[in-house]
Amino acid sequence: MAKKMNSEVLGVVENMAYYQCLECGHKDYIFGENGGESLATSMQSELLGKLPLVSELRHRSDRVKACSQTSWACPEEGQSGKPMIFDEPEADISQEFFNIAKRLAEKAAGFDENIEPLKLKMEVE
């Protein structure tokens, strides 16, 4: 699609790259391994990151979306109602999102090693 639109591809993010067992840490590449890397290579681009299947992220994202469509807050017990990356910035999935965002920002800005890196700041109202 990007080529048809004559748009530059800044990078590839492989979504649902694998499922990681919560008990033992084993990674199961449900849809095959290295698909994002292959796509990035074929597009003469780079792989910005791999996002795993994380059921908690999906559940909380769905919950936030449902809450945002109402005028009342509806977080579950122990949750703020904010996206997971705000509540748990130290979580592996949150860190991967931050790393992808940083790489994408660097690519979009024509990253120069002599320029101070972009500082990411998140705020939720």
From TrEMBL:
PANTHER family: IRON-SULFUR PROTEIN NUBPL (PTHR42961:SF2). Keywords: ATP-binding, Nucleotide-binding. This is Mrp/NBP35 family ATP-binding protein. It holds the Pfam family ParA. The keyword ATP-binding applies. GO terms for molecular function: 4 iron, 4 sulfur cluster binding; ATP binding. GO terms for biological process: iron-sulfur cluster assembly. InterPro entries: NUBPL-like, P-loop_NTPase, YlxH/NBP35. Transmembrane segments: none annotated.
